[in-house]
Amino acid sequence: MIEILEQQIWQGYSVEKLRITGVNGNRVPCNCIWPKDRTLPVPYMITTHGATSSKHEWTEMDGYTKGGNITQELVAKGIAVIAMDLHFHGDNNTQNMGNLNVFSEDNWDVFFSRSITDIHTVLNHFAQDPSCDSSRMGFAGYSLAGIFGFWLANRGAPFTTMLLCVPSVDRNQNKPYATFNNLDNLKNLSILQVSAEEDEYVPFAEAKWLFEQIPLTRKRFLSFKSGHSLPADYVPEAVAWIHSQLNPQ
After folding, report:
1. What is the per-residue DSSP string for 7-23?
2. Which of 54, 106, 108, 140 qualifies as a cystine partner to 47, CB 3.0-4.6 A?
3. DSSP label at 238?
4. d(CA 157, CA 138)
5. 82, pLDDT greater than 90
6. For the chain, first and last CA: distance in Å?
7. Which of 65, 56, 63 is nearest to 10 (CA)?
8. Which of 32-41, 49-58, 203-212 has the highest mean pLDDT?
9. What would the pLDDT profile of 126-160 be if each residue is shown by its tens digit?
10. DSSP alpha helix (H) spans, the chain
11. Measuring CA to CA, how many Å separate 3 from each of 6, 17, 22, 84, 202?
């Protein structure tokens, strides 16, 4: 079931604020930013956020971790952007953890499993939406969201491409969700990894190591002399990559 909570205009484009109910009753808030021409099924990106953020990052402009500039350029090129809240973030807090740390041992498993369920709810809904071309669907994520991107793609989520900005790196073989354990079955997609040379959370050497392990031929590594908060310089490169991979008609 889908509820349209609000419709508005953002930067000249139509935005639908939705709540999508999954088969298990989970209700996932999304902001859908649509290109002006929806006469044909459009390619689209599922976008996710970092640990302390929300879907609203993808319509906020001119900030170091904001996605509004990317969103604006993508929809101008005919690509829809579906920004969703991971569990316990933004408007997706019906079982609110308050100020608890989702990374703590007591909270992580619940956060991760519920977020994966919520992402599948969103994927399943838009795969059946006649406005969307599910054969040209991508995933974008900042920081923490990279963990979800690798996990889903390694288990067959039909992404054409992924944009992973300063993704987390974890080599712990005992953690099923760690990126180290979610590289072996990647196929039929492309990846753009954007990393920071002075990242205070993800050592640059680890970021380069992660990229080298990705078993794909269609992959690209970009780096910038910045901390975990990337400069706006990465936006044109990211948009050009996504546009080339989704290849709008």
Report:
1. EEEETTEEEEEEEEE-T
2. 140
3. H
4. 10
5. yes
6. 30
7. 56
8. 203-212
9. 999 999 999 999 999 988 889 999 999 999 999 99
10. 68-76, 108-127, 145-154, 204-213, 234-246
11. 9, 8, 12, 14, 38
Contacts of 239 (CB under 8 A, 6+ apart): 70, 73, 74, 77
Give the tokens for residue 83: 């920004």
Options 3.40.50.1820, 3.30.300.350, 3.20.10.10, 3.40.50.1000; CATH for 2-246 is 3.40.50.1820
Record the tokens describing residue 36, joined without a space: 């002006």
Three-state DSSP at 84 gives: strand
Global pTM reads 0.92
Q: Residue 115 to residues 27, 51, 122: CA-CA distances in angstroms? A: 11, 12, 11
Q: How many CA atoms lie within 13 A of 7 on its CB side?
A: 4
Burial class (CB in 10 A: 0-12, 13-18, 19+), 249: exposed
Residue type, 55: K
Measured distance CA(50)–CA(142) in Å, rounded: 5
